[in-house]
Amino acid sequence: MTTATPKIEAANPFENALQQLDRALHYLDVSPGMAEFLRRPHREFTVNFPVRMDNGEIQMFTGYRVQHSIVRGPAKGGIRYHPMVSMDEVRALSMWMTWKCAVMNLPYGGAKGGIIVDPRQLSQGEVERMTRRFAYELIPIIGPDQDIPAPDVNTGAQTMAWIMDTYSMTTGTPSPGVVTGKPVSVGGSLGRSEATGRGVMYTTLRALKHLDIPVKEARVVVQGFGNVGAVAAYLMQEEGATIIGVGDVSGALYDPNGLDARDVLAYARGHSNLIEGYPKAKAITNEELLTLECDVLIPAALENQITAANAGQIKARVIAEGANGPTTPEADDILRQRGIMIIPDILCNAGGVTVSYLEWVQDRQYFFWTEDEINSRLERMMDEGFYAVLKIAQDMEVDMRTAAYILAVRRVVEVAQLRGFYP
C-alpha cells in the first residue's frame, strides 16, 4: 500500500535561511550594511523557454538560477528538476551553498538552479531537449570561472554531460570544468557519485565518537532513500551500524533487527527506484519512520521535514542532515532543548560539493586522482570542517548549526572586507 510522505509545513525556505543567518549574526560584529549584503542574493535569473515534445507540440517550462554570492570565488550549486521548485526555494538553497562552501573552506560562492517539472512525466528525449535548452539560456551566467552547476534532486551525471556538451558546442571551446558531477568518461571524478552520502557517514561517525556512542551499537534511520540516503545507509552499515528504517516517496520500511541497505537498494533499482513492496521488512508510514527510536536519524529527502509539529516526537540522539534545510528553525529550538545533536546540512552533506571542487580542480589541470585519493582527501576535509564547527560550538556554547553559520559567515565577511566594494 502506498503511503504519503510527511506533510511539509507551510514554511518559506528562504525565510528559514534568513532566520538561520540572523541567529549567527547575533554572535558576530557585523555592520548593518554588511548584514544586508549577506541577506540579498547577488543575481537572480528567471527564464521561460520552449521545448518540442515527442508528439511535436511545444511546451513551455520555467527555470531559475540564483547566485547568492561570488565573494569567495565562482558560484557553485546544483540544478534540480521538481514540480515544487520556486524562486524562494532556489534563493534559500543558493544561500545555503554559500555557507556550505565557506564551512568547508572551498574557494566558491553559492548558487542553485531548478526547473519546475516532474521529469518522470517526460521521455528521455524530452528531458534531454529541456536540459539543453535550459543550459543554452544559462550560458551568459555560467562558466568554469563564473558559475559551475552540479546535480541535485532528479538530476545526475547524464544531465551534467548534456549541459557540458551544450555549453562547449555553443562557445566553441571544450569546457569540462563548466559543471561537476559528470560521468567519469567525460571528465568526472571517481568517488563523486557516493560523495555526499560518504560525507554524511564521515560526519556521523565523528558525532557518534564525540557522544561516546559505539558505531557497532548505533541504530540508524534514513528518510529519503536516494542518491544521498541510500549511500549513507550502506556505508554506515559497512561501518557496523544497524539500519532499522528507511523511507522514500513510496513509503517506509522497518526492521528492528536490521535491514540490508544494499539489498533494499537493489530491490528499488528493479522497481522504478522505489522501495514500496520490499518483502523483507515491515511497511510503515513516513510519519512513523521519523519518530522511530534510534541513535541516528538521517533526513535525506527535501526541506521542512522536521518541524514544530513533529520535533517533539523525534527519538534520535543525533540528526545528520543529508538533505538541504530538512529542519525548520522552530524545530531546531525544540530539538536543542531536548539535547539532540544536529549535524547541520551545510556541514553534514558538504561531501558532494567538496568532491565537486576536487573534480573541478582535476578538470582545470587535466590530471586525475584515484578513487582512494579522492576519498582520503574528502575524509580529511570533512574532518577539518566537523572539528572546526565543534570547537566553535564548545567555545561559544552554541548549537552545531549556529556554530557552522558563525564559521561560514565569518569567512565570507572577512573576504568581503578585504576585497572591498567596487568601485
Q: Quick one: CATH class of the domain at 195-348?
A: Alpha Beta
Adjacency order of strands in the biggest sheet = 9-8-7-6-10-11-12
State the fourth-level CATH superfamily of the domain at 195-348. Answer: NAD(P)-binding Rossmann-like Domain
Which of globular, elongated, flat, extended, rod-shaped describes the shape?
A: globular
In whole angstroms, the N-to-C terminal distance is 62 Å
C-alpha-based Rg, rounded? 20 Å
CATH topology-level fold name of the domain at 195-348: Rossmann fold
Secondary-structure element string: HHEEEHEHEHHEHEEHEHEEHEHHHH
User: pLDDT below 50 for ≥5 consecutive residues: which ranges?
Assistant: 1-9
β content, as a range?
Answer: 15-25%
List keywords for this structure.
423 residues; alpha/beta; Rossmann fold; 7-stranded mixed β-sheet; 5-stranded mixed β-sheet; 14 helices; globular; disordered N terminus
Task: Give a written overview of the molecule.
The chain is an alpha/beta fold and 423 residues long. Among the domains are: 136 residues, Rossmann fold; 154 residues, 3-Layer(aba) Sandwich (Rossmann fold). Helices cover 43% and strands 18% of the residues. It contains 14 helices and twelve strands. Strand 3, helix 3 and strand 4 form a beta-alpha-beta unit.
